[in-house]
Amino acid sequence: MDTRRTADDIDALLLRALVDDPDATNLAISERTGLARNTVRSRLARYEAERSLRSFERRVDPAFLGFPLEAFVMTTVKQRELQAISAALGEIPEVVQVHGLAGVADLLVNVVARDADDLYRIAGRILAIHGVKRTVTGLVMGEFVPHRLAQLIPTG
């Protein structure tokens, strides 16, 4: 059973303020929300300790770093090799995220690449990992709904 705490009304106020201005100071958040600065500071520290907020890396566009292509590599693996395969995927710099799946494949590997030849090389590197049985690569052609969570924040 998941025993992590969920957001309360104070968290919702703070999160909405952070969504609107991620770089706001504690004082600015305090003024915007009407919460005491100590409350803001302690809640932000709690989020850090709980790992409730994701890393800054999610804000960086890979194209800015020279990786304009994005793809998802659906990967079927030998289940008993899953830990070693995950570790090997973590060694490939262009692998930006890996999800375990139930259903159509075992892993959904999100990769970025410099161009089509680079994507071919990366996909081949994934396929060469011991325990990987099969891959199917889908090139991202556009993003129609960007990553978002603000709509899930309770509104009081």
Widest β-sheet, arrangement of strands: 2-3-1-4
Separation, N- and C-terminal Cα atoms: 27 Å
Helix % is 25-40%
H/E topology pattern = HHHEHEEHE
E-strand count: 4
Counting helices, strands and paired strands, the structural category is alpha+beta
Low-confidence stretches: none
Largest sheet: 4 strands, antiparallel
* Percent strand: 15-25%
User: Helical segment tally?
Assistant: 5
From the alpha carbons, calculate the radius of gyration and give it in angstroms.
20 Å
The average pLDDT is: 93
- What is the 3D shape? elongated
Structure report:
It is a single chain. This protein is an alpha+beta fold. The chain is built from five helices and four strands. A hairpin with a 6-residue loop joins strand 2 (95-100) and strand 3. The longest helix has 14 residues, at 37-50. The two termini are 27 Å apart.
Keywords:
5 helices, 4 strands, four-stranded antiparallel β-sheet, 156 residues
Q: What is the fold's blueprint, element by element?
A:
Elements: H1 9-20, H2 26-33, H3 37-50, E1 69-77, H4 82-90, E2 95-100, E3 107-113, H5 116-127, E4 132-139
Antiparallel strand pairs: 1-3, 1-4, 2-3
Can you describe this structure in just a few lines?
Helices cover 35% and strands 19% of the residues. Helix 2 crosses helix 3.
